[in-house]
Amino acid sequence: MRYNFVSLSNKLNIIKRIKRLSFMPLPVSRYVDLIFDLVGLAILNSNVKVMILNKFGTKFIWKDIDFSKFGPLYNRCFGMTFEECGVLSYTDVVLFNKTVLTFEEVRHPNFNNSYIYNELYKPVGIYSFLLTVLRIKGECVGEFPLFRAKDMPPFTKEDALFMESVAPYIAYGISKSERVCESFNRCLDSDKPIVRLQESEIGLLLINAKGEIDGMNDAAKNMFFQIGLLENLGYESIEEKQLRELIRYVNTVTRNVFLNEGYNCNALPSKIYTSSSGISIMMKGYRLEGTRSESSLVAITCEEVIPDDFMKLKRRIRYNLSEKEFEICRLLKEGYAPSEIEKILNITKNTFKTHKANILNKICLDDIKEIKIFLRNM
Question: Which fold, 194-308?
């Protein structure tokens, strides 16, 4: 299997973009989503992504992990010794006087026979990692592990140097985004344009006539555990024996979302709940057929969505496009001819040519026909 080599100039460009991103006023989940994307452009890593957001290892964001299954395993690792767990504890890693730690520095010699390898890493396809400790003025604010699958090459010194370069910016961005979360307004407006995540599983909640949770599937557990975890829900609440804490949290959310709707109507209007951390969930409730109104059972579907304006920002940052360049791409995607775009944006033919050349250079294409093909899949 071949892997693309990222040139030094491209890596330096990505470092600058991560630095700029750290000053943007974004809630934490959206900031981390963009960091995952940009780091992935510079360093090949697996689909499994995790970023720990505090010095205790109890507040984190993940992608492509079923935490309803693996959360309890992670929880159990907190009480294990180095030998039992297979890797250094979170506390021990923080005490290291290094920013980037290699797999060899963190793992126990008996790692392949350890609990964490056989119960967590192996099932999700993790075989090696590069660990970056995020600090501000010497104080740890989190960790950013990069994972690789079995068929991937080992991380290099250049990868470690890149992570060492961006670590201070990522750490500052986390601290800034945490402050943004404190003032981020929740939005229950379903009229704004959204992008549905194709790979997102549909969560399902069952609500009884009293408005209490009677049941939820694993997809719903994952969604609300992630949201709640970023709002100081206890990480141990993913355990079945302590699930009541998570259920209480979900109850609070559903009551707030459907406060004025009641639960006894045939179909509740769609609502988009955006948490203070920036995660958006589209929720729609239905009274199940065959249930009487006085004992109605309501099913609420939950689907993670992304606001259209954030998706535009994500694409702009990913391809390093200016606002004008992105607008030209949008209009080309909608089928407008160059002459029409010049009129819409009130720019000259030469200005359009300059923007077109910049776009081609940034997304590594040869002509405008290739841009149109590329944009259909963007």
Answer: Beta-Lactamase (3.30.450)
Listed residue (202, 226, 228) closest to 216, CA to CA: 202
pLDDT at residue 132 is higher than 90: yes
Which pLDDT value is given to residue 183?
Answer: 61
Distance, CA of 64 to CA of 200 (rounded, Å): 10
Query: Which pLDDT tens digit goes with each residue over 256-283?
Result: 777 655 544 455 678 888 888 899 998 8
DSSP, res 294: G
Question: Is 90 exceeded by the pLDDT of residue 288?
Answer: no
Residue type, 95: L
3-class DSSP state of 214: strand
Virtual CA dihedral for 95, 100, 103, 108, nearest 10 degrees? -10
pLDDT at 268: 65
| CATH 3.30.450.40 segments of the chain | 8-182
Classify domain 8-182 at the CATH topology level. Beta-Lactamase (3.30.450)
pTM: 0.85
Q: Provide the b/e sequence for 289-305 (b: ≥16 CB within 10 Å).
A: eeeeeeebbbebbbbbb
CA of residue 367 relative to chain centroid, distance: 33
Distances (CA, A) of 320 to 20, 24, 144, 362: 11, 15, 23, 7
Residue linked to tokens 């923080």 = 94
Average pLDDT over residues 148-171: 93
Which CATH architecture is the domain 319-376 placed in?
Orthogonal Bundle (1.10)
Q: Are 287 and 296 in contact (CB under 8 A)?
A: yes
Exposed/middle/buried for residue 360 (C-beta within 10 Å: 0-12, 13-18, 19+): middle
pLDDT in tens, 31-57: 999 999 999 999 989 888 999 888 777
